[in-house]
């Protein structure tokens, strides 16, 4: 009887050692990456960031992790914006908004986790089936201030709130300090919470929609205004 008890104790010790070794070896190592001023920690790998004029893409096929940063103000090509929107909408189909470890993200019925945010025109989309990986990325996500030139040719810094406090599903993540998009490349000026687009004309609210009735109905998105103006030859 004593021998059986000793054997059981030895077996339990071995199981505990195996569990400890597995826990140690399965620990994820991370590395820092920066994409258009957005910094975060991702699983350690040899993946290089692909750069283009308005896109930066991190595609880690081993960990099934993809990060896309699209700067909507680097180009006035509405086709590029439409392409990004299609990718974003595909990733966020049939999703449920979740909040864990003080971060908010989406999870689809197929198990794909995703996050979308907009930081002064820098659109970021993160997709992965690994929930823990996405949570770690969002916990370490930092946004560098955006320096651009205003119409007075002076550098102006746009500060971003990096707190992931709102759902990234149906609504664009906005800076709680209200960047107001007052210093993007199209040279805008702001007043009383509204901003004026000196390039295409018109006053807009903090959500980028027309603030008053005029050539376009109140609430029209800037993207739609630009597209329409180009179609009629005024943009």
Care to describe what's here?
This protein has helices at residues 2-25, 78-91, 131-140, 222-231; strands at 30-35, 38-43, 50-51, 55-60, 65-71, 95-100, 103-108, 113-119, 122-128, 142-143, 146-149, 155-158, 188-191, 194-197, 203-204. It is α+β, with helices and mostly antiparallel strands and 235 residues long. Among the domains are: 30-143, Protein Transport Mog1p, Chain A, CATH 3.40.1000; 195-232, no CATH class. The strands form four sheets. The chain has a seven-stranded antiparallel β-sheet with strand order 3-4-5-9-8-7-6, with helices on both faces. The chain has a three-stranded antiparallel β-sheet with strand order 1-2-10. The chain has a three-stranded antiparallel β-sheet with strand order 13-14-15, with no helix packed on it. Strand 14 (194-197) and strand 15 form a beta hairpin. Residues 164-191 have a biased composition (Low complexity).
Keywords:
25% helix; 235 residues; alpha+beta; 7-stranded antiparallel beta sheet; 4 helices; 3-stranded antiparallel beta sheet; membrane; Protein Transport Mog1p, Chain A
Draw up the topology in text.
Layout: H1 2-25, E1 30-35, E2 38-43, E3 50-51, E4 55-60, E5 65-71, H2 78-91, E6 95-100, E7 103-108, E8 113-119, E9 122-128, H3 131-140, E10 142-143, E11 146-149, E12 155-158, E13 188-191, E14 194-197, E15 203-204, H4 222-231
Antiparallel strand pairs: 1-2, 2-10, 3-4, 4-5, 5-9, 6-7, 7-8, 8-9, 11-12, 13-14, 14-15
């Amino acid at each position: 009887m004593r021998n059986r008890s000793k054997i059981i104790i030895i077996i339990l010790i071995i199981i505990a050692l195996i569990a400890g070794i597995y826990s140690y070896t399965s620990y994820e190592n991370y590395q820092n990456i920066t994409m258009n001023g957005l910094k975060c920690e991702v699983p350690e790998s040899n993946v290089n960031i692909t750069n283009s004029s308005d896109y930066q893409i991190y595609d880690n096929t081993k960990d099934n992790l993809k990060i896309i940063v699209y700067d909507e103000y680097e180009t006035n090509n509405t086709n590029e914006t439409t392409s990004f929107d299609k990718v974003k909408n595909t990733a966020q189909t049939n999703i449920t908004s979740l909040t864990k470890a003080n971060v908010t993200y989406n999870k689809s019925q197929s198990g794909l986790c995703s996050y979308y945010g907009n930081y002064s025109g820098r659109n970021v989309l993160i997709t992965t089936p690994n929930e823990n990986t996405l949570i770690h990325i969002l916990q370490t996500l930092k946004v560098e201030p955006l320096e651009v030139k205003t119409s007075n040719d002076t550098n102006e810094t746009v500060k971003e709130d990096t707190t992931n406090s709102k759902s990234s599903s149906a609504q664009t993540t906005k800076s709680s300090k209200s960047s107001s998009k007052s210093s993007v490349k199209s040279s805008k000026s702001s007043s009383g919470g509204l901003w004026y687009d000196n390039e295409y004309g018109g006053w807009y609210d903090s959500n980028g929609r027309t603030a008053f009735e005029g050539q376009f109905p109140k609430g029209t998105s800037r993207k739609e205004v630009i597209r329409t103006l180009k179609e009629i030859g005024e943009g």
